[in-house]
Amino acid sequence: MTEDAYISIRNVDKYFGKFQAVDDVTIDIGQGEFFSLLGSSGCGKTTLLRMLAGFENPTHGEIYIDGQPMSDVPPHHRPVNMVFQNYAIFPHLNVRDNIAYGLRKHKLPKAKRYEMVDEMLDLIKLPDYGDRRANELSGGQRQRIALARALILRPKVLLLDEPLGALDKQLREQMQLELRQLQRTVGITFVFVTHDQEEALTLSDRIAVMSEGRVLQLDTPSGLYERPHSRQVASFIGTMNFFEASVKGVQGEKVDISVRGLGDIAARTTGQSLAEGEKVQVAVRPEKFVLTADQPGTPSSSVPGIVETSAYLGERSHFFIRLEGLDQTVAVSAQNSAGTQAFGDGSKPVWLSWTEDSLVLLPPE
Amino acid sequence: MSEQSIHTSVPAELAPPGKVGRLSRLMHRSERARGYGLIAPALTFMLCAILLPFAILVVMSFWTATGFDFDTSFSLENYKQALERPIYAALLERSLWMSGIATVAAVVLCYPMAYFVAFHVHRHKMFWIILMTLPFWTSYLLRVFAWKVVLGYEGVINSFLISVGLIEEPLEVLLYSQSAVIITLAHAWAAFAILPMYVSLEKIDRSLLEAATDLGDGPVMRFLRVTLPLSLPGVISASLLIFIPTTGDYITPALLGGPDGAMIGNLIQKMFGPINNWPMGATLSILLMLCISVICVLFILLTLFVRRRIS
Ligand SMILES: Nc1ncnc2c1ncn2[C@@H]1O[C@H](COP(=O)(O)OP(=O)(O)OP(=O)(O)O)[C@@H](O)[C@H]1O
Ligand SMILES: [Mg+2]
Fold this sequence. Notes:
The complex is a heterodimer of chains A (365) and B (311).
Chain A: E1 5-16, E2 19-30, E3 34-39, H1 45-53, E4 60-65, E5 68-69, E6 80-83, H2 95-100, H3 110-123, H4 139-151, E7 157-161, H5 169-186, E8 189-194, H6 197-203, E9 206-211, E10 214-219, H7 221-226, H8 231-236, E11 241-251, E12 254-259, E13 263-268, E14 279-284, E15 290-292, E16 302-312, E17 316-323, E18 330-335, E19 350-353, E20 360-362
Parallel strand pairs in A: 3-8, 3-9, 6-7, 7-8
Antiparallel strand pairs in A: 1-2, 1-4, 4-5, 9-10, 11-12, 11-14, 12-13, 14-20, 15-19, 16-17, 16-19, 17-18
Helix pairs in contact in A: 3-4
Chain B: H1 2-14, H2 16-29, H3 31-61, E1 64-66, E2 69-71, H4 77-84, H5 86-120, H6 125-133, H7 140-151, H8 156-164, H9 178-188, H10 190-202, H11 206-214, H12 219-247, H13 251-257, H14 264-272, H15 278-310
The complex binds adenosine-5'-triphosphate (ATP) and magnesium ion.
């Protein structure tokens, strides 16, 4: 366990009968961090979150919060609160009593309690909604009330299970911003579950990408985007071009590789040790390629190609380019300018170039 | 007048199909019209089968019995008598009291069963429900006689207690007493308690219970603050479903009650039977109905008040 980890998940397994929903997960989360669990549906995100909240027990392993092992602590005694995927607003209570629900334990006078609720209602920008019933609220309002109900208890950790899943794009983006601001002002550790990679990238300090119960990679948003460790992570986050390659020669960090479609080129390793003749994959983000009409001055890092299709997206354009010796087309994304319009018609060859550090070397599939 | 008739007759003559269209359009547009349409058959039946006998009962209660005949002139004599002679009030009070206890017993004993099936049975729920309502597949009369066998002078309980050596003489209070009636009523109507309470418990969203736990409530507080208030509709309907029919029941007290366990239903039955004082029987029925209505309204108000206080 690292010293400053506030939540520490150690080698946790979870079985439902014979089915393994969480497989040997180890994660440390620091105090005040905005931490996201990202993965496709059914990969065990909710299960992991429910184990943090105490609604499920790990089959193996242990969870520590603030240094305390949690296996014998029932959910109502844990220093965490959860915002449920479906909000779970109590239908028999009005908004005010919903938000005040958890304050019962604090033995405060009623006036003080309602004062705190009013502060919360201001914070979530629903000041006049105290007397409404749960069924008189929109999805976005429910979500904010579920948030307020948990936040009013000043938990040390807030667990959020796809809280923005039901909202439309505009409200969603607005709420993302508000969530992030809120998290900064109240300084609570957030553990946020989502299957939306864009949302995870925007909000998080760090992200754990999960698949089939395992953590594939745990990194900062830029780390995940720029230096994915595997093809699975790379293709899950954003778009990525993959090329088959083999190693020709190694000198320290520098390697010479022969890449199908791109030719014999130079690249750099990111920590992994490669041997001559080894098969690797080269991954390049679409926006890391540069398109030019004429051959650039660096012949060793450029190839000619034909634009097969293109898509105009206003600010940017996407081009799909056919290279010699390659079955699939290469996706390239470029900022639109006066020159880029001319690439679209595919009548003339274009030149594709890149820099050494835009290439990511991955193990073969 | 003539102008009006022209106005109304013209569209009807011109386009009878349009009229149908208008009706269906109305049905579509107005939810209330659709609602009335749906309850119309039931309503018609209710009007004939309930209101009509009720009206007869009301009218009859203002008559008086004279020997073997009825004096059909209007009179409040029956009501006066019913309020003045203590036997009526005492019987009425006892009936309400006994069925009240039977209702509470049935609801309190059945709630855990309904709770168990709703929350702790995950497979074959229907099987459990059927199992619980199995006793109700036999006739009401048979169940009452079964209790007679259990509670009787030489019945199951007495013979057991004697054979164990706890008592030497059979207990006589078991049968022909108020408790015999209460036990039998509570058991006989248990299905009417289980089903509505099961339905309302089953409907409760499990994540609400988890949310309550998450917000710091232990199992007891969670039950009082979430489960119970949300299942209250089921509890109320179960209580009413048992209390209303048992208050006027006369078979069980007649067979198991003895003199101490007689209820108002027995007297009403006698009024319409051997005593042959139908007007008095009608009066007592109406007074019983009034009492039940008042109690039910108070009960509903009370539960709503309690619910607000708990949460
Ligand atoms: N109580 C349970 N019993 C059996 N299997 C379960 C149970 N809860 C979850 N699972 C299984 O565990 C796996 C992970 O479920 P989980 O709810 O954690 O997924 P998730 O990552 O939250 O997915 P989503 O994005 O769809 O919410 C799923 O395959 C699911 O079927
Ligand atoms: Mg989930």
